[in-house]
Write a structure and sequence with these properties.
heterodimer; A: 408 residues; alpha+beta; 2 domains; nine-stranded mixed sheet; two-stranded antiparallel ribbon; 11 strands; B: 221 residues; Rossmann fold; four-stranded antiparallel sheet; 7 helices
């Protein structure tokens, strides 16, 4: 192997293994703690995101002054807003919006029975209702949007899926779906005809029981219902499937900016809990990160300082034989950065292994390695090593060789 | 080679000025072998390190050929030390975790230096100094005489014109001292190296061609 400046760095590291170990330990443990916490938090975030996805829509946009009760009661005079708001949201390209489902809901008479008629865009509504997706309506399981899909892979081909979806996605102008309870009450079956305020609808599907208000509703195409009720392009509400991460990062505020004259709500309890958890973990991570950078830098600084003191004679000699300050900076900084890279790598490995082992006990979660954390670990560890060694290295390069030589 | 005029170096000790050198005017001829003698604290080492570009004088001029040494920027001064000067010190100052061969190669891998085959040159130098069989030894595995010979080989690595030796025999017994002085004499006589040596030893001073005596920072007549 040829002898060069790198050889000097490696030889010196090898020479003082004990001190190297203590310097490395500070960075490694610090990075390991951060990686372990972040890995568990990330897994938890994904699990909750998946659960929220299964719940379907989690943001409601209602007209200003309307309440959720108005939506559920579907009163005749319940306020509406323009359907163009859907286009406004779409055009905004806000991240974290997976599906938009506008609706127009009114109580109508079908024969002697009062039913709630809801106009929907069938494709959007299906995406927003995982319960419908799991029914015989679709045949396949729900598609998670925020969280990565796990578990069994479907054996259906894309063509099969398209064929299955076609029937329900193509809700014609004169077609309707009936909720399970309303179908039971009014003896509606597939193929039945419903006469609603002078318009005739053929029931193409009886929906499965969901345990929600949907069981008491009749669904028709939004355009048909708007025409039937003579309200133009007005809608009663827009349901949105929003990713919980984006919700916690201010999606609602951004929506309010786009639609200032509406009322925007989330499925409060669940989302708020997740938001609070995410915020808490983010704060804990930031505080820990700060402490680790501080403690790590002090520890590395201490190590490099001791190393400079120990090598005063060597530094003086190198300057005497013609090494300049740049060479001395490089000698020490290269060593610190090597220490940072090693600490970052070991910290990532240790933190990931700790998370995989402890995750199931501490959080009841199966943890998978997050490979992007490796880059972060290396970056933070090198930053710690660099910050910690800056002053001692500066001091080393400023040592007066004449003073050192006369100390001997 | 060196032209020194009215060179003074003043340190502040508890706000009191302490003169290490006072108005030193001296010329060092190329190919000369000079011993600087004088009692402790007389300014010998300060003068030697000033010649090596390591101590910025408080006043006066110090020229090396056409170079006004202390007007050079730091990187040029480092380059001057690397190419023109070889230091031999009392305590050898070998890097403890590098082998004898690697210690000799250190000046040849200094930043900005693009020498070819440093290993060949270092091997040849150590061979000339009788250390062919000790090249892979660490300094602690060598005797003091061998360590000083490695230090001399290191000083010669870049084939400098000047060897500045600070008490090169200070840690050696008389036999080893003679051995080192023989090497310095040979370098002076055969290779024309200019040698300036600080010493307390009258015996060592006697081996030099000329002597300069310092007392309280001044040259004594």
């Amino acid at each position: 192997m040829s002898f060069n400046k790198n050889t000097v760095v490696f030889r010196e590291l090898k020479q003082r293994k004990g001190r190297l170990f203590s310097g490395l330990l500070a960075i490694t443990l610090g990075i390991a703690v951060i990686v372990a916490i972040q890995s568990i938090t990330e897994a938890s975030r994904q699990v909750i995101a998946g659960k929220l996805d299964l719940l379907g829509a989690n943001i409601q946009i209602l007209p200003q002054g309307a309440s959720v009760d108005d939506y559920y009661s579907a009163d005749i005079d319940a306020p509406t807003f323009p359907g163009e708001y859907v286009d406004r949201i779409t055009a905004s390209m806000l991240p974290g919006i997976d599906n938009l489902s506008p609706k127009l809901t009114r109580k109508v008479k079908v024969g002697e029975n009062a039913v709630v008629l809801t106009g929907i865009l069938p494709r959007n509504e299906l995406a927003a209702k995982p319960v419908w997706q799991t029914s015989e309506l679709m045949g396949a399981g729900p598609a998670l949007t925020c969280a990565p899909s796990k578990g069994k892979e479907s054996t259906l081909t894309e063509e099969d899926r398209k064929a299955e979806r076609k029937a329900v996605e193509a809700l014609g102008e004169s077609e309707a779906w009936a909720g399970s309870l309303v179908a039971q009450k009014m003896a509606i079956r597939q193929g039945s005809t419903l006469d609603i305020q002078g318009m005739s609808f053929t029931v193409t599907h009886v929906l499965p029981e969901t345990g929600t208000v949907d069981d008491n509703r009749v669904f028709a195409h939004l355009r048909s219902v708007q025409k039937l009720l003579g309200v133009g392009n007005q809608v009663s509400n827009i349901e949105i499937m929003g990713c919980c991460n984006e919700i916690s990062e201010g999606l609602l505020g951004k929506l309010r900016n786009i639609l200032p004259d509406t009322r925007i709500m989330t499925i409060g309890h669940i989302v708020n809990t997740q938001i609070e958890t995410n915020r808490l973990m983010s704060r804990v991570t930031v505080v820990l990160l700060f402490l680790i950078v501080l403690v790590g830098s002090i520890s590395i600084g201490n190590y490099v300082w001791a190393n400079v003191e120990e090598r005063r004679k060597e530094i003086g000699t190198l300057i005497a034989i013609g090494w300049d300050r740049k060479g001395i900076y490089r000698l020490f900084l290269q060593k610190s950065i090597l220490l940072g890279v090693a600490g970052g790598l070991l910290g990532y490995l240790l933190g990931t292994v700790a998370a995989i082992i402890l995750g199931p006990y501490l959080a009841g979660l199966a943890i998978e390695p997050v490979f992007s954390y490796l880059l972060w670990s290396l970056f933070i560890a090198v930053l710690i090593a660099f910050l910690g060694s800056c002053y001692p290295v500066y001091r080393a390069a400023r040592l007066d060789p004449a003073v050192i030589m006369q100390e001997i | 080679m060196y032209d020194i005029r009215n060179l003074s170096k003043v340190y502040n000790h508890r706000k009191e000025p302490v003169f290490a050198l006072r108005d030193v005017t001296w010329k060092v001829e190329p190919g000369s072998f000079t011993a600087i003698t004088g009692p402790s604290g007389s300014g010998k080492t300060t003068l030697l390190l000033s010649l090596g570009g390591l101590i910025q004088p408080s006043s006066g001029k110090l020229h090396y050929g056409d170079l006004d040494l202390y007007r050079l920027p730091a990187n040029r001064l480092a380059e001057f030390r690397n190419r023109s000067i070889g230091f031999v010190l009392q305590t050898f100052n070998l890097v403890p975790y590098l082998s004898a061969l690697e210690n000799v190669m250190l000046p040849m891998i200094a930043p900005g230096r693009k020498g070819s085959n440093p290993a060949d040159r270092a091997t040849s130098l150590l061979g000339d100094l009788g250390l062919s069989d000790r090249m892979d030894f660490l300094p602690r595995e060598l005797s003091v005489g061998q360590q000083q010979r490695v230090a001399i080989a290191r000083a010669l690595a870049n084939d400098p014109d000047v060897i500045l030796a600070d008490e090169p025999t200070g840690n050696l017994d008389p036999a080893l001292s003679d051995e080192i002085l023989n090497i310095l004499e040979k370098l002076n006589a055969e290779q024309g190296k200019t040698i300036v040596m600080v010493t307390h030893s009258p015996r060592a001073a006697g081996r030099a061609g000329t002597a300069l005596k310092l007392a309280e920072g001044r040259i004594e007549a």
